[in-house]
Amino acid sequence: MSYMVGYGPRYAQRIHHRGSSLPSVHVHPAHIGCKAGSHYFLSPNFYPNKLVGAVVGGPNVTDAFPDSRPYF
């Protein structure tokens, strides 16, 4: 698994990043407040805004990578 978003055939799909967790302004032009953003952040879906080139933290102490937004 690649820890750089968009690099290779397998990479992180649910990164801990608010901007990539929220829908784009073209899809959702209304303001999204902090509390309302949690709905998107905690979603198990892939990110709506792919942050190509972002580097995520690597594996944990058991050499696993939980591809989940709450883990950073």
Question: Topology of this protein?
Answer:
Blueprint: H1 18-21, H2 34-41
Defining key terms:
72 residues; mainly alpha; globular
Describe the structure.
Helix content is 17%, strand content 0%. It is built from two helices and no strands. With 72 residues, it is an all-alpha fold. It is globular and about 40 Å long. The protein has one domain.
Largest sheet report: none
Tally of DSSP helical segments: 2
Number of strands: 0
**Rg (C-alpha, Å):** 13 Å
Assembly state (oligomeric): single chain
The percent range for helix content is 10-25%
Offer a quick outline of the entry.
This protein is mostly helical. The protein has two helices and no strands.
